[in-house]
Design a protein that fits this description.
heterodimer; A: about 280 residues; alpha/beta; Rossmann fold; eight-stranded mixed sheet; 7 helices; 12 strands; about 25% strand; B: about 550 residues; alpha+beta; Dna Ligase, domain 1; six-stranded antiparallel β-barrel; five-stranded mixed sheet; 17 helices; about 30% helix; elongated
């Protein structure tokens, strides 16, 4: 009987050879991912996995919030509804809108402390229906974030499982540990200041001697359950093969600057909006 | 019935009692007497059969009824009667729009042409009785080709009664002439003549009756003969729905209040459901118990004037009309938890603003979005945690002032895919999702975000010439490596509260003993306060 089943198994495996690698081995279904809004991060991690917890951590000025902003811009531009639980009320809607976030598709929860943030994210996830729920703990004291029990992160992971919600957690240190399907560490490298080498003309008060042009950020994968698998990104015809790279660098640009094609004589102007309010910007530039 | 025109009459027997029983269903199974009258001399004006069996009679004083320990006594409540009458109208309007509001306990309806929709007359009568019972009312229904016959038969006979055309007189002949509601003067005349039944009145000669008692007598004669035809005086369907509840003893705990609110919401929901409408907004007004110290002022004992009752209002505006009473109750509970009335509640008035029900189905080809009803509840729950003004969507103000935005209510309606993505200037009509994601990545350049400090952190900045050279805040201090600025803005200088800021982007290398080593910050110098602040950090 046993030899018969073995023979049958060999027969099936040989028949499917080349199409299915191991038909009798249990395989965890790969999560569907969505773009993080930054091509380099998508190349590295295959995007943000849906139905999973993704954690991004790093020091201040490492580019965490910029990555969150890009992810929100990508999701809202795709007509998806997102939510941001802001533990320290630190989200800047002005910056976000200029980065492409549709604010009317973003539910913003402004919390005053960590407890409010954790309760809010729990309620949001149980309500369901959001494409991306972000919990920004980057401004919260690391000491308090460390005290969040691991069972809470397990509960969040369990809540988003089998849903199409991306749960994104931002913090100064890694907190979710094994509950996160994808953990990215962000680190800032060299900053770029425009006109860096120019000297200030003495006595010229309003000379913009140097403007923060941007910086290069490194994203490193600390943990990824789908790291060595081919990950299928929604909307992408090909699968990403990420077995080689562990880190990726990408540039972040200041929103003082217009895109390359329009950069020119107006580079120093922060925005060119019509303001009906009669305000003055004296001696600018 | 062969006639093309049919009328129905809906009559609520013992209306005063049923109006009370509708809001307190538990009273239906126990002896109940309703009292009314000027304050010291309350008398029984309505009672149920169980109370009659025990010996209570109409006209008995309150003190006399008080001898019967088992009998529940309730004061007559006109607001509840109004609500019951409105509910009765909704029952009628759920059948046909042609309704005459004949009396608080009687409605007349035109049911011509409803056969294809609801069935024959008997089926329509059963349907009316069934719908009224869901509203907590037991009604008599009569259908006839003659509107007055239907009205009188409904008042006289229980149960659905169908009066075939041509047999109206047979149904009416045994009824007392008082059922025709003659005037007092005419009643006395009929009594003197010995005319006690409709049959006796119908057999009188019309001309002689006209000579003796005038046109009123002729009209009653025609009705007694089953020939009292007249058009209906149609009532205008109301768009405003109201329910009341008055308490004997004020309540002060949320659980008891929730029970009553749930009952009122169920009643409103049923009424709107009968009219195929939904609730767009709910307004609850509470009449609060006057405070004890105000009611009994010991200092000014001579002027012991009863203070006017205080009121408290609580409202809900729903983005999507709904009839889900449980959802509305949860939302009201959350609203009351976050903002309690502050005194025990004596009277509840609940008003619902009606709207057409949502009939469209979400498209299959747009991304999933939160269920509007569920999201409304989630937002209300979170609002009770973080505060009402701290949840919603941000809307930028037309101003150069830093952090100029205000919070809007989150638009819960489904997002139109073609309308979104304005920033990327692309149309979703013809673009498939595959290519749209690729295009998006090309068009969106990752930009540096600002992590804002709210409120701004006071800082100390040392200038080297006109340029910041050294900064310290929150126990951290460091040398400014690069500085960009100042970006000078000001506004509202023509008003009382002007603002003026010089903004700098600073790269700071902190000293080794500081908690952080390096960072890019946005500093601002408030020219009016002559102070420096840290607005945020670039992250």
């Amino acid at each position: 009987m046993l030899s018969r089943s073995n023979a049958l198994r060999l027969h099936v495996e040989s028949a499917l050879a080349g199409r299915v690698s191991s038909p009798f081995r249990f395989q965890e279904p790969q999560p569907i991912t969505a773009s993080a809004g930054i091509a380099a991060v998508d190349q590295l991690a295959g995007g943000l996995p849906r139905g999973c917890l993704t954690e991004i951590f790093g020091e201040l000025s490492s580019g965490m919030t910029s990555l969150l902003q890009s992810a929100l811009a990508a999701r809202t531009a795709n007509a998806e509804v997102c939510a941001l639980v802001d533990a320290q009320d630190s989200f800047d809607p002005g910056c976000a809108q200029s980065a492409g976030v549709c604010l009317h598709q973003l539910l913003w929860v402004r919390c005053r402390n960590l407890d409010q943030a954790l309760r809010s994210v729990d309620l949001l996830l149980h309500g369901g229906g959001f494409s991306l729920v972000a919990l920004d703990l980057s401004g919260a004291p690391a000491r308090l974030v460390r005290q969040v029990p691991l069972s809470f992160w397990f509960r969040l992971r369990r809540t988003v499982e089998n849903t199409s919600t991306i749960l994104l957690v931002l913090s100064r240190e890694s907190s979710a540990k094994t509950c996160a399907s994808l953990v990215l560490r962000m680190e800032r490298e060299a900053a770029r200041w425009s006109l860096q080498d120019c000297q200030y003309p003495s006595g010229d008060f309003h000379t913009p001697g140097s403007l923060l042009d941007g910086w290069t950020t490194t994203a490193e994968i600390i943990r990824s359950t789908a790291r060595h698998e081919n990950v299928f990104v929604i909307g992408s015809a090909k699968a990403f093969d990420n077995s080689a790279a562990e880190t990726v660098r990408f540039d972040l640009r200041s929103n003082h600057f217009l895109p390359d094609d329009s950069a020119g004589s107006d580079r120093l102007l922060p925005s060119q909006q019509d303001h009906s309010e009669n305000e003055r910007t004296p001696n600018f530039g | 019935m062969s006639s093309a025109v049919s009328f129905g009459a809906i009559y609520v027997p013992n209306f005063i009692l049923q109006a009370i029983g509708r809001s307190e269903p538990e009273l239906r199974t126990q002896p109940l007497a309703i009292i009314d009258g000027p304050p010291p001399t309350y008398q029984v004006v309505a009672l149920n059969r169980l109370a009659q069996i025990l010996g209570v009679t109409r006209g008995m004083t309150k003190a006399a009824v008080g001898q019967f320990a088992q009998v529940a006594i309730r004061p007559r409540c006109r607001v509840r009667e109004e609500a019951a009458h409105s509910a009765l109208l909704d029952v009628a309007w759920s059948i046909t729009p042609l309704v005459e509001n004949a009396a608080p306990d009687t409605l007349l309806i035109d049911i011509s042409g409803l056969a294809s929709l609801l069935g024959d007359e008997e089926a329509i009568a059963r349907q009316i009785a069934s719908r009224a019972s869901t509203f907590g009312m037991n009604v008599h229904v009569a259908i006839s080709a003659n509107v007055e016959t239907a009205r009188i038969v409904a008042r006289a006979l229980p149960g659905p009664t169908i009066v075939p055309e041509g047999e109206e007189r047979r149904f009416l002949e045994t009824l007392p002439v008082s059922m025709l509601s003659p005037s007092q003067e005419l009643s006395e005349v009929f009594e003197r003549w010995g005319v006690s039944t409709c049959k006796a009145l119908a057999s009188l000669p019309v001309l002689s009756l006209s000579e003796c008692v005038g046109q009123e007598g002729v009209r009653l004669h025609a009705i007694a003969n089953g020939k009292g035809m007249r058009p209906l005086l149609l009532a205008e369907p109301a768009q405003h729905f109201e329910e009341w509840f008055e308490l004997d003893e004020a309540i002060d705990d949320l659980e008891s209040l929730s029970f009553l609110l749930g009952r009122l919401l169920d009643q409103l929901s049923a009424r709107l459901s009968a009219r195929a409408l939904s609730i767009a907004a709910v307004q609850v007004n509470f009449e609060l118990q006057p405070a004890f110290d105000n009611a009994f002022d010991t200092v000014r004992d001579l002027l012991r004037v009863k203070p006017s009752p205080r009121t408290f209002s609580c409202g809900l505006e729903l983005p999507i009309p709904t009839r889900d009473a449980k959802l509305l109750l949860k939302l009201l509970r959350l609203r009351l938890q976050s903002r309690p009335p502050g005194a025990p509640i004596q009277k509840i008035q609940m008003t619902a603003q009606s709207s057409l029900s949502r009939v469209t189905q979400g498209s299959l080809f747009i991304p999933t979005a939160p269920d509007p009803d569920k999201l409304e509840l989630t937002i209300a729950r979170i609002a009770s945690v973080v505060g009402d003004g701290n949840i919603g969507s941000a809307k930028l103000l037309d101003s150069h002032r830093p952090d100029a935005f205000h919070m809007d209510k989150f638009p819960i309606v489904a997002v139109d895919r073609s309308a979104s993505g304005n920033n990327t200037k692309r149309s979703a009509k013809t673009t498939a999702q595959n290519s749209s994601e690729k295009n998006l990545q090309k068009e969106l350049v990752p930009q540096i975000a600002l992590h804002v400090f709210r409120p701004s952190i006071p800082a100390r900045v040392r200038l080297d010439g006109n340029k910041p050279a050294f900064a310290s805040f929150q126990g951290c201090s460091g040398k400014v490596v690069h500085a960009s600025g100042p970006w000078c803005t000001s506004g509202h200088w023509w008003e009382e509260k002007p603002w003026q800021e010089d903004t700098w982007d600073l790269e700071i290398q902190f000293s080794p003993e500081s908690s952080t080593t390096h960072g890019f910050y946005r500093f601002s110098y408030d020219g009016l306060l002559d102070k420096w602040f840290v607005r945020g950090v670039y992250d």
